[in-house]
From TrEMBL:
Record-linked InterPro entries: P-loop_NTPase, T6A_TsaE
Listed Gene3D superfamilies: P-loop containing nucleotide triphosphate hydrolases (3.40.50.300)
Subcellular location: Cytoplasm
Gene of this entry: tsaE
Protein name: tRNA threonylcarbamoyladenosine biosynthesis protein TsaE
Keywords linked to the UniProt accession: ATP-binding, Cytoplasm, Magnesium, Metal-binding, Nucleotide-binding, tRNA processing
Biased composition (Basic and acidic residues): 1-23
Pfam hit, one: TsaE
Similarity comment text for this entry: Belongs to the TsaE family.
Amino acid sequence: MNEPDHPEKPGHPEEHGTEERGAVLRLPTTADTEAFGRTLAAGLRAGDLVILDGPLGAGKTALTRGIAAGLGVTGRVSSPTFVIARTHRARPGGIGLVHVDAYRLDPASGTGVLDELDALDLDTELTDAVVVVEWGVGVAERLADRYLLVRLRREPDSDVRTAAWEWVAR
Ligand SMILES: Nc1ncnc2c1ncn2[C@@H]1O[C@H](COP(=O)(O)OP(=O)(O)OP(=O)(O)O)[C@@H](O)[C@H]1O
Ligand SMILES: [Mg+2]
């Protein structure tokens, strides 16, 4: 059981401030990770930034797939191999998703995710969508005043993933 001050589902910082953080969740299967994404999506609003931290194969794309399902956006979420970002349109009345994979962005180069997204000329305004950035630590924070940081970890020789989230104010 989670402590009351370690909720499983993030409340929104506009109501709860950015002090909130969740307990470490155990995610034994891919389906559990996707379900956690759907839970996260329920608390997200247009313009929210989500930064996903975690090593190769940690489940960042799987989590994004769950967020996409929770938002009900169009298109299949996959690892963008050649593109930095992919836009998923909102269903009527819903919120869209901009899925960014910043793996190839070098934090030291000075080119931030914002420059890259500007160059892509996305057809969705970032303020109209939820923006999820894989490998976003160190390169995507400046996209918003606050962001939901989700850390995914994997245990050696096991499918079990763990996840912890917190809202971070810049
Ligand atoms: N508990 C779990 N949660 C998430 N994925 C899991 C889990 N157990 C096994 N997997 C598998 O691990 C892989 C995770 O891949 P995924 O592409 O989501 O990771 P990633 O963090 O996005 O990797 P990358 O850094 O390459 O972008 C998938 O093949 C998935 O099926
Ligand atoms: Mg990925």
